[in-house]
Every structure is written in C-alpha cells, then in structure tokens.
Design goal:
This protein is of the alpha/beta class and 848 residues long. The chain contains 36 helices and 16 strands. It has an eleven-stranded mixed β-sheet, with helices on both faces. A three-stranded antiparallel β-sheet has the order 9-10-11. A hairpin with a 4-residue loop joins strand 2 and strand 3. The longest helix has 23 residues, at 588-610. The radius of gyration is 31 Å and the shape is elongated. The termini are far apart.
Amino acid sequence: MADQATDMVARARRLHDPELLGLSLRVLAWTYRSLWDEASARRLLDEAVRTSRKHGLAHVEASALVSRATVLQEMGRTSAAARDLDDALVAVDRAEMDPAERALLHGRIRLSRAVLEQNAGRLLAAEQRYRALLAEGGLDVSRTVIATNNLAMLLAERGAFDEALLRADASVDLCDQAPGLLAPAIQTRAWIAVRAGRLREGMHDFERAAQAYSDAGIPLGEYYTEFADAMMDLRLLPEAATAAANAVRELEASGVSLMATEAQLRLARIALLTGDLASAQTHADAAAEAARHQRRAGWRDRAVLVGVEARLESRSVGVAEAGTARRAAGRLERAGNLHSAVEAYLVAGRVALAVDRPRDAIVTLGRAGDLARDGQVLVRLRGRLAGALAARAARRPAATLVECRSGLRDLAVHRSALPTIELRALASGHGAELGEIGLGVVLAGGSPAKALAWMERTRAAALLTRFPASDVPMADRRATSVVTGDSGQGRGIAVADSAPRVSAEDWARKGRASEGSSVPRFRGLAALREALDGRTLVEFGKFEGRLVAVVVEPRRARLVELGAEQDVATELRPLLFALRRLANPRGGAAADAARASADLRIARLRDLLIAPLGVGVHDELVVVPVGMLHGVPWSCLHDGPLAQAPSATFWVRTRLAAQERDAAGRTVLVAGPDLTGASEEVEALRAVHPGAHVLVDAGAGAGEVVDALADADLAHLACHGSPRADNPMFSSLLLADGPVTVQELHGAGVAPHRLVLASCHSGADVAYAGDEVLGFVSAMLAQGTAGVVASIAAVPDVAAVDLMLELHRGLRDGLTLARALHAARGRVDRSTPEGFVNWCTFSAHGAA
C-alpha cells in the first residue's frame, strides 16, 4: 500500500496534476498514520492542504483537512484538530461535488467531531453524536465500523455492557467488508468482554487482535494499552505494568503523544496499586502536564487525581488537594465518565478525612456511592467502599456493615464469573479494604463469634469452588520455560528468570465454575466445635496493622489482641534466612551462628503469636493464618500437634472429607530425578506400605504421576521443588520429563486424599490482598485433597528420609497427618543443622 501510494505521488508530481497530488498525498499520509508515524503523516497532509487551496480544489481540501484533524488529535493537538474540522465544513459547502459524495464527507466530519468529543472526555456528547450518525446511516462501511466500535467503548465506560457487547459484535461483523479495521475492532470487544466479566471470550479476542496487528505489520502500542487496562481490572498487576510500559515506549517512539499520555497515566495507576508511590507521582505529573498541553481536560483530571492519591498514600496531602480532587470529580461527572467520577469522589472523600474534614468527606463519599449504583460490578464495589467510609465517618456502625456486606456480595458475584483459581484470588483484592473496615466494626463489639464469622466472610473464598479437570493431555500443557540450576544439597532448584504466561486457551478450557458465587458460609461455633472434636482453633485477623486472634476452645471462645504485624515481620525474615543457611551450611561457625539466630527468633515468635493465646502447651491446634503469617513455620512454635488451614470453613470441609474417606485407595510413592535422598526415601517407604505403586526414574513423568494420583488415598512426592513467589501457580516440581507446575496439577484435577510433598518450599503458599492464599497446598486442598504435609523452606535431602519414614509409620498406624508429623518431629535429632531445619519447616495442612 505504501509503495503504491508513493508511486502515485511521484506520478502526480511528474504530471503536474494538483488534484491527483492532493489525493495521493492523503493516501500516502494515511499509510504512515496506520504505522503511528504521525509526524510524517502530518507533513504530507500539510502539503495536501496547501496544494488543494492553491488550486481551488475545495473537495480535496475538505478531505485532507478531515484526515489532518484525525492526525492532530492523535498528536494531542485537539484545538488545531477542531479548527481543521470547522474549515473542512466550510470547504465542503463551497465545493462542487455530487450530493452523495457531499453527504459522505459531512458524515466523516461529524464522525471526527464525535471522536474529538470522546478524546476530550465529553463522553455523553460523544455518545449522542455516535448514535445520531448510526441512526441516520450516512456513513460508509469503514466509518460505520469506527462509530460502532467507539460507541461500544463509551457504553462499556458507563457500565452498559449488554449493549456494548452487541455493538462490538456488530463492529467485528462489519469488518468482513473492512478487513483493515479488524484488529482494533476485535481488541475493543476483548476489552469490553474482560470488563464485563466474560474473561474467556476477552482473552481469546486479545490473542486474535495481537495476531491481526502482527500480520498487518502495525505497531502494538494501542494493543498494549488496552491489554494493560484489562489486566489492571483483573489485578494482574505485573502483566499490566509490562503492557503499559511497552505501550508508552512504542507510542512515544511513534510520536503518538495523545495515546502515549493515556498509557503514561495507566503506568501511574499501576504503580499506585503496587505501592510504588514515587513512580506513581512521577508518571501522574508527566501525564497531567502532557494532557494540559493537549487541552484534554478529562485526561488531565484523571492524572491529577492519581497524583493526589499518591500524595494521600504518602501522607502529604492538605486542604488544597481536597478541593482539587472534588472539582475534578465534578467535571468528570458532568462529562459522563462514570467510572472515573466515582473514583474521583472517593479520592476526594479520603483526602477530606485525612485533613480532618468529616462533613465534607461524608458529602463527597455519598456522591460516589450514589453515582456507582448503576455501574458495573467493580464500579459498584468502589461505591460501596465510599459508602462504608462515609458511614464510619458518621459513626454509624450498622450502616458501615451494611455497605461492607453488600460490597462483598457484589465481589462474590464478580469472582464467580472468573474461570481460574488464581484470577479469583486476585479479584478478592478488590474487597480487601471492605473486609478490614467491617472487621474493625465487629471487633469493637467484642463478640468472638461475630468476629470469626466476619473473618470467614473474606477468608480463602477463591478456594471454595472445585474446577472441572482439563481434558487436555498433560504433555500438551507443559510449560515451555524450564527451571535450571544447581540443586546443591537441598530439594530445590533455581527459580526461572521469567514466568510462563497463562494463555487464553489455558484460561478458556477450564470453563466457568459451577458451584455458585464462592461465598464462604460459616455455620457457627457449635458446628465448628463438633468438627474440631476437642481441638482448639486459632484464627488470626489484622486491622490497621495490628493482629488479633479468635480462639475457639471446647468450652469457650475468646478474642485476643496481639501486637503489630510489623513486629512479627521483624522476627520472621531473619528466621527464614537462618533456616536457609542451615539447610546448606558452609561451615561450623556459620551453622552455629545461624542456629543461635533461629533459636532466638523462634522464642520471640512464640512470645508474639502463641503465648498471648493462653492455650495449653500440648493442646492440638488448628491455625488459620492471615497475610504474612502464612509464611510462619508454625510447627516449631507450639509443642503440641498442629495443623494449618486457609479458613475454618475449609478445615471443616477437609474434616468431613477425612471422615468420608475410602481407605481402599492405593498409596503412591514418587521419586523425582537428580535427588539421591529421594530414591533412598522411596525404598524405605516401600517397607511401610507394601504393595504401594512406585514411580521412579523415567517412569515418573508428569502424565504417569497425574494418572497415579487420580485415585490415591496417600501420595508421597520426593523431588526438587522450585518456588515462584511472584506467581505461585507456576511453582513447580521436577519430574522425569521436566517441571510440572501447580497450575498444571490443579488443572488436571489432581486430588489424592492425603499428600506428602517432600520438596523444597512446597508449603510456601503466597498470601494475597483480600485474605487469599495460593500455592501447592492451597491448590491441592481446593481440588479436594483433605490433608497435606509440606515444607515452607529448603529441605535438606538425605536428612529428610528419617523424618518421612517416621511420618509414614504414624499414618500406617491410623494417625492424622498432624499427629503423625508431631510424633515424627519428636524423634528428629535437632542437634544437627539438617535435622533442625526439618523439625522447623514441615507443617500439616487440613484435617486428614
């Protein structure tokens, strides 16, 4: 296309044909514009306008002016674009042309006006213009696609998703007659589908759009921008940040300042969500300044608000910022930008609270709640949060709880539409603040039963649905990124540099879950005590940086206030560091120093987390951690048997599963490659479990292991483990044919009744905002496994054999995992570094 247009321009110059030259310059300019080379496109269009004016070619001038207006908009020159459109109307009126051609040109100008309104943030005006254009039907096919596509985006912005998706479908269908617009049309539909909670369709369309752009040789700046939006809505923040940074880089390199500003603002928002306040401020200020120069008030308001929010988080706001945020919110509301207006009023209300102006805050937050009622679910969630903050500021605890409950119910509906466990866990972050505000109200009432019921409302909700197993063979879903490294003396290998990404097909094939909206149902203390059967449950919560616990004993329940969460972090980090050193000691002096540090930290953690609970030294505990407490080696803090669980509700589920267990299931023993102790371990366990199904060497591939685990009563996996703290569903175990990830095991529906993971870091599940946790243990429990034993740290190889042998002897004798592990740990020689590490780091999870 570019070569043909270049030849046409050269021919026009040779023939001294001004009409042909003006038309061919416009065509050539459009080819540059499609590649985001806006500077070259404008230069050519400038010449086309000059040439047509010089020779009195009004119809050519009008077309060139409309094209230049589009380019100027994309360069951020909105005022200049508006002048070009005004001049284009004048040129059309004085041109001699066919009435049908005149009508088409008028339609182009009106469409450009609508786009200008949209880019300026005047969304209601833009929507009205698009509707009028489409109702009149005076556009050609390509411009009908553009109008339909842009109207779909506006509808999605204000939460009208049903009509938005219908318009997006129509736009894609029309691309049969305008194939050059297929990629952006599919991309828009993808963005809308993801926002509407139809993730499978959205991710599939995003992949189609990227391929269409690549096939056409078009830079991916716009694609990256839309993809960043979708990932941000799903709280896949690392993916969102990468996409937004790619968008800024490509758009700035192409000179597309308008879209580069939008991508810069997305970077600011993502930095804010990840807590990088300095970067958020930098990106927001840059985006605000660029939008000011472009005279785009709506985008400037959005950028200013992100900057205000970053200052709020860093506690550097004053009365001036409250007024700035409130005025920006009003402008966004008047422009019809519902999503941004709700967020703006919420920010303004927070700032008013921070500067001790509760009356102003209540009014502003109330406006956010009112506006959000008709929005899509994530907008409604922000409205509920605003309502909860307003009610709390007005000292109305009952109303505060109503808002929190309603918001969490909305979140449950949203979460239930997501097709994977990891996306559900990430989505729970949208309700983290609602959960904490509600917990604060309940704690003030002093009722242990109500506090526990509220904690359960937000605890591990993403794990409650069992997903259907994939029907895709394991070999077809294997990760392409292979972890490598020296295994050293432990059962771990180095973390891969980059995570394999979840493809649309991986997400799609799992399907939607079928068990309702994943709302945890706490059935009360009586039912819980019956399931505990003499055990004591300790469920931790946190509020405003401090830890609390509900202790449920056989005859009473208590609320216990603990210390600051930061105090635990201060002791936990050096303890885990000491255990890593002891797992692979480099000398006697280093081992002695690490052991002394570990003993000190364990004693302090006992004082912080166990001693205040007032439980008996040998009581059997069920511990439900929160946040960073999932990384605590609980077994070494309490002298009695202990099991962990993601929630009390979940522990009861594993207890029922244990009671319904079919003991006829087989025992499966697996030894992974390149691990001396694994083979020795499996050979020793053969004697404990005669007739066990043993998989070793080449027979221990992913497919064979998954098939064997399908009906196992007890499974033991001794192999290298590789943790992924950034994406725990891509943590992996090394089998004979390569690493198998948590995601693959979960997707395959693997759920042995009891599972022993004798692998490094296999119990190091990662906590997420919203009281969620993901990793090997939680994924197995979610699919139906009733009990797991795993380690939160590196496992010394050969030294683990004795502990595992004692554990399995206890299981053979009918003990639960918690009691068998407790007995086995009691026989460990803690005087050696390796023995001490194994004594510390293995824990039982669940009731089996």
